[in-house]
């Protein structure tokens, strides 16, 4: 019966209940707690965990990661398509030739509903340089990483302390 505690108490009295109102109130409160405890168990997973699972090669999944991903896909079926596109990108980036990557970009450009469509458009403008990066053993990744680190330190230090502390922070990891 849906209703407040007094309505439940009156209904029970009509059925022949001779006990007190406090006993009914306590019983209703306990029953509500039990119901809420079972209905409030929700499924939640962090965005970071989902992204890590999508980017991780499928053969490296642990059993609980397989289960988690299956559950997420059952709740959001478009995630399956997204996962396959991410895995294709992962394979293309780890391939030593640019052929697979170029094919991936073309596949994304041919489907305007692809979540990577705009990304592929931006890549297309610089595709030749990206293709050369597959064949060249040289990389400026370390330099870009240092520049990014310096900019982060600069942002953190803006308006704080002095030049000595900034210098110590910059030289700390070099």
TrEMBL record:
<feature type="domain" description="Transposase IS204/IS1001/IS1096/IS1165 DDE">
    <location>
        <begin position="22"/>
        <end position="169"/>
    </location>
</feature>
<dbReference type="InterPro" id="IPR002560">
    <property type="entry name" value="Transposase_DDE"/>
</dbReference>
<dbReference type="Pfam" id="PF01610">
    <property type="entry name" value="DDE_Tnp_ISL3"/>
</dbReference>
<protein>
    <submittedName>
        <fullName>Transposase</fullName>
    </submittedName>
</protein>
<dbReference type="InterPro" id="IPR047951">
    <property type="entry name" value="Transpos_ISL3"/>
</dbReference>
């Amino acid at each position: 019966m849906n209703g407040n505690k007094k309505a439940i108490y009156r209904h029970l009295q009509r059925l022949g209940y001779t006990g007190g109102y406090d006993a009914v109130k306590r019983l209703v409160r306990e029953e509500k707690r039990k119901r809420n405890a079972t209905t409030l168990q929700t499924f939640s997973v962090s965005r970071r965990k989902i992204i890590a699972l999508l980017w991780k090669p499928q053969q490296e999944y642990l059993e609980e990661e397989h289960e988690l991903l299956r559950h997420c896909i059952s709740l959001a079926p478009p995630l399956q398509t997204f996962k396959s596109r991410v895995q294709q990108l992962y394979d293309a980036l780890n391939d030593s030739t640019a052929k697979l990557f170029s094919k991936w970009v073309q596949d994304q450009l041919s489907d305007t509903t692809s979540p990577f469509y705009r990304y592929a458009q931006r890549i297309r403008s610089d595709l030749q340089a990206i293709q050369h990066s597959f064949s060249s053993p040289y990389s400026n990744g370390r330099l870009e990483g240092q520049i990014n680190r310096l900019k982060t330190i600069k942002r953190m230090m803006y308006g704080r302390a002095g030049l000595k502390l900034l210098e110590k922070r910059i030289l700390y990891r070099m």
